[in-house]
């Protein structure tokens, strides 16, 4: 028994839709990881989501155009949704938690030299800051005296 070329083509389209769904949620998981590492304001989250969904629509359209000559078929949308559901059910939590864990460890290791340098420079920079503060306070006092003298001189004219 031979399978027709049409059925094979539609199977390829369904597989491409399934993989597109997985890829879309994988990209969104990287957004979620970024949000856990770097706190975002609500308007930034909304903007990121808007950009993501516009990009998702463009990617879905490109897949439909390439695989199915642009025809929107129910089984293609279903394939994307099943791919998203499959990825979300099995891999999403691991990808997000694992990525956050690895990135936090990498950032911790990379930040250690900066923390050590800051600790070494804290005392000398604190001393410089105190001296600078005194100098600025002195300059401010002198400028106030000068301004007072200028105002008194202006009143006498």
Order of helices and strands: HHHH
The coarse overall form would be elongated
> Cα-atom Rg, whole angstroms?
31 Å
Figure out the total of helices: 4
Q: Mind summarizing the main beta sheet? A: none
Helix percent reads over 70%
- Uncertain regions spanning at least 5 consecutive residues: none
Head-to-tail CA distance between termini: 113 Å
Structural class: mainly alpha
Q: What percent strand?
A: under 5%
pLDDT averaged residue by residue? 87
Can you offer a commentary on this structure?
With 157 residues, the chain is mainly α. 90% of the residues lie in helices and 0% in strands. It has helices spanning 5-37, 42-68, 74-90, 92-156. Helix 1 crosses helix 3 and helix 1 (5-37) packs across helix 4 (92-156). The model has no long low-confidence stretch (mean pLDDT 87).
